[in-house]
Write a structure and sequence with these properties.
Elements lengths: L8 H12 L4 H8 L3 H10 L1 H27 L2 E7 L2 E8 L2 H11 L1 H4 L18 H12 L10 H14 L1
Helix pairs in contact: 1-2, 1-4, 3-4, 4-5, 7-8
Length: 165
């Protein structure tokens, strides 16, 4: 069984700086010479260490967001090679990062599977033009009086005939 790593202010500083720079916990542990299980135990047991960890994670989050914004908005240079030698660069943009930021900043506009707010009733009118034509034919043949139809239907049937006629 390996010895439990000793915690030190210098080790904590290396661990926290690595976290601030966006490294994963495993990489931060390696930089500090700490075991992963130990740092999680210290986080549970030491509120000051937990608070410093949270602050470092926030710095990393801000740093990574800035980089995502830069790559999506300003782009980055990618080397172009010709016959095995670098011949120049071309500007590349990350549409995926830009879309991810938009989804985070404006989820109501860009995120999928967002429930739609329904704040009013919606009426849908489905017209059966064949039925309207059949009713108009019955009216024209004096087999049906327009007064027998409901007002909105009568207006549609009679209005359609006037437009046609």
């Amino acid at each position: 069984m390996s010895a439990k790593p000793r915690r030190s202010p210098a080790g904590d500083a290396r661990f926290l700086v690595a976290l601030e720079n966006g490294h994963a916990v495993a990489a931060a542990c390696q930089a500090a010479g700490y075991a992963r299980a130990s740092v999680y135990a210290w986080r549970r047991e030491d509120p000051a260490f937990a608070a410093a960890w949270d602050a470092a994670a926030q710095v990393a989050s801000d740093l990574l967001e800035e980089e995502a914004d830069r790559r999506g908005r300003d782009g980055y240079d990618e080397a172009v090679f010709y016959r095995g030698e670098e011949a120049g660069t071309r500007r590349k943009y990350s549409d995926g990062l830009l879309l991810a930021r938009l989804k985070a900043l404006k989820p109501q506009d860009y995120r999928e599977n967002m429930p739609l707010a329904v704040d009013q009733k919606l009426s849908v009118l489905i017209r059966d033009v064949d039925a309207e034509a059949a009713l108009r034919k019955l009216i024209d043949e004096n087999r049906l009086s327009p007064d027998e139809l409901e007002e909105t239907l009568r207006n549609r049937v009679m209005g359609a005939c006037e437009r046609q006629g």
